[in-house]
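User: Okay, second chain of the day. Same drill as before: sequence in, structure tokens out.
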Amino acid sequence: MTEQALCQKAIDMLDMAYVPYSHFPVGAALLCRDGTVFTGYYNADATDKAVFAHNIQSDIVMDIIKANADTISGILEDGK
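Assistant: Same drill. Structure tokens below.
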């Protein structure tokens, strides 16, 4: 898969993001060594108002990583 195709998969996820507070949609695509592609997007909830108040995008990205830690660990354990 080309880098451009992988980026497009992440961009395609932006429409699914729910970001009523920050208005900063986040989409992601992860290409594994075996060719599997995992995609995801940010889904805000009421607890994210604090993140919006800080207006720091890195906080949003860290929240996504924390929320998906089990999935990421599983991918790594599977050797993908």
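The chain has a mean pLDDT of 75.

User: Thanks, on to the next one.
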